[in-house]
Structure formats: C-alpha cells, structure tokens
Amino acid sequence: MGGLKGLVKKGLGEMGFNAEGGVVNWFPGHMAAATRAIRTRLKLADLVIEVRDSRIPLSSAHGDLQPQLSSKRRVIALNKKDLANPNIMHKWVNYFDSCNQDCIPINAHSKSSVKKLLELVEFKLKEVISREPTLLVMVVGVPNVGKSALINSIHQIASSHFPVQEKLKRATVGPLPGVTQDIAGYKIAHQPSIYVLDTPGVLVPSIPDIETGLKLALAGSVKDSVVGEERIAQYLLAVLNTRGTPLHWRHWNNRKMEGIRYESQDKHDYNLKDLLPKRKKPPNMSDVLYVEDLVTEVQCALYKTLAEFNGSLEDENDLENLIEQQFEVLKKALKIPHKTSEARLMVSKKFLTLFRTGKLGPFILDDVPEVNSVP
Known about the structure:
about 45% helix
C-alpha cells in the first residue's frame, strides 16, 4: 500500500489537521489524569473486559495500559461485530487465540451476544478462583467502542437474574470526570459472587502514529473536530481504493447496479444522522428506500471512477488525484448542490455516516498481523 502510506505521510501527516495547522492535539490534557485513576482502579479487578472496535482490533487497544492489562486475567470483547467483515473476523479470533488471549466478537446491543461474553467471563473466573467469595470484573476501552452499551446490556441481564440486588461498594478511589468515587457494580453470578463494575470511566486512546489516529477518528474514537471530516473522508477513500473495495461492490449490490431507483415527488429531508444508534427516530419505508438509493449511487460512483482509473494506486499523487475526482462525483451521488460553499464538508459528513453505520458494507480497517505478534 505504498500509495496509501505515502498519502497519509504527505497529505495528512505533515500538515496540521486543524485549520490553524500545527501539531495535532488529539485529546485534552485532563485525560492523562483519568488514565492514572483507571490504573488505580484496575488493581481492584479480578478480571478485565477490554472492549475494542471489531473494525480496528489493534488500533482501538489502549497502548499505554497494555502492560497492566496483559498481566491480568482479560477477555477482549471485539464489539460492533455487525459492522465488521465476517470473512476476516474469524482470522482475528484465531490471531488472538494464537497469542493465548481470550477474545470474543460481540454486539453490545444484543443480549444474547452479551450473555455469551458473560458466560466466558464466569468460566474464566470459576476455573481459576474458587476460594474468593466476591470477584470484581472491570470494563475498559477507548471512547466510542461501546462500553456504555455493554454496561447497559449487562445491567439489564443482571436485573433479570438478580432482581433484588444492591450495588456493591468495594473501595473508594481517585475521582474521574463524570463518575462517582465509589465503585459500584451489578451481580452477574453466584458462588462465587461476580460483579461487573458499572464505572468504565474515560480512557484516552494511545496514538503511536498518524494512521492509527486516522483509524480511530474514522471509527469515532477521536472527535471529528480534532482531525476534520474532510481529512477522515479522504483517508477512507484512500483505504477503499487501495483495497479495491468498490470493484467488489458490483458483485453483491444487485438492486442499485441493475438501475432500480427510488423516485420521490417531494424533496426528501431524511437526515442520515438518524441512522446512528443514539438517534430514536426510526426510518419508514420511504426513508429506507431513500438511504438505499444513496448507498447505491455512492457505490456506483466509486466503482466507476476506480474501474476507469488509469494511474497507479501505489503512487500517492495518482491516488490523491483519484480521490479528488471521487469527491466531485460523490456530490451528485449524495444529492449535494455543486455550488454549495460547504459541499465538500457535506459530502464528507454524509459519506462517513454511511460508513460508520455499516451501510457501505462490513469492513475491517486493521490488517491481520503475523501470528505470535503481541496483541
């Protein structure tokens, strides 16, 4: 991927992500204090559930905490498995297995999926500890990997199994922004009693290089405003092109490729942001067809530009020119007026929303490493 690496270094790495330029400030300074408090809290845990994003199984790891996490009993929960390519997901499970690391793909919004995770947690604790009357499990993970969704599902499952349970208070530790000082948890098993702590806290993602930062930004673990939607969209297009993904869309997207179009008499005002999990407005059939039409238009546009591309994807200049061309065709595909002053930004926002909600298909950004590498 010479073209991709070159573009990241040339177009994204050596310039400031913010309009003012300069070094990227990935996160506020107070986050470092939060990480120190998390370290203290981790000492109390008998097992850790480390939540990562299935689309970036390595990039969503908290690098600074890995030495401490790897020394504890740990289960890596690869969340958002519904957004990850299942043809590659099993390779990641095999990879972690080869590293003697327990790993399970999950969907935090699915109770059956979370139950399988809790069964693994209970098994791991019962097989090792029989003398402790009370065991604590802690949930950690960088922003937007789904910690809160997982905790909510665990709470619901725990309430059904142990309807009358009081929150456990084990110790008081240093304060974290937005959480109480008391550790509280929900009981998920008996004999031994196992509690899952419901205060995952805030963890800053470790960003060793620009490309890792872009992957975290693309997955939503770094705020868009830090990097800029246009830069993130440019990176996504670079990844899709260098992997040849648009060329594969022709084979499985039969509805749009056959020329079926959704026609509306009125201007459609459905907001793609409503596709995001936190949004409550459910799409009706008209909205569904509208989104399908947008997706097909986007896929057709990117397929055509890549199929007709005569340059080299290994050359960052050629790749950059291709991406510029794709930004132009995406304006039409996403029904954005060409003369709009913020057309490029609007393209980026809509394009990223389609990717993040899985509408462009399941995808994994990280490459599967060699076996025996450290996770």
